[in-house]
Design goal:
The chain has helices spanning 9-13, 16-19, 21-27, 30-47, 51-71, 83-107. The longest helix has 25 residues, at 83-107. It has one domain (29-107). The chain has 108 residues and is an all-alpha fold. The mean pLDDT is 83.
Length: 108
């Protein structure tokens, strides 16, 4: 509380993710958590033998990571480097995996 905000009303109006703390830190990482969850599901599918849909999920998750990195102001851990490097790498790897999956599918 400060003199300009005697009742702490400003903190009450600030979203929890912006106030900080453990909960706020976890909530700020939702883009990374979604991408990792989808990649994990894709790798499980690959491990059990359904490699075509698994690779599609992994490639789609990387494309989603590139899109989230491009669109979001605060993308959390998805921001590894500068945006000009991250976005093409995520999108390029995702598209490459999807293309390899499509080529392997038509070749079989």
């Amino acid at each position: 509380m400060t003199r300009s905000d005697p009742g702490g009303r400003e903190a009450a109006r600030t979203p929890r993710a912006e106030r900080g703390g453990v909960t706020g830190a976890v909530l700020r990482q939702w883009p990374w958590a979604v991408v990792v969850a989808v990649v994990g599901l894709g790798l499980v599918l690959v491990a059990v033998g359904a490699w075509r849909p698994g690779l599609g999920l992994v490639g789609g998750a990387l494309v989603a990571a590139g899109t989230l990195r491009w669109v979001l102001v605060e993308p959390g851990i998805l921001a590894i480097r500068r945006k000009v490097i991250d976005v093409p790498l995520y999108l390029g790897l995702g598209v490459a995996i999807i293309v390899v999956d499509a080529i392997a599918t038509t070749a079989l």
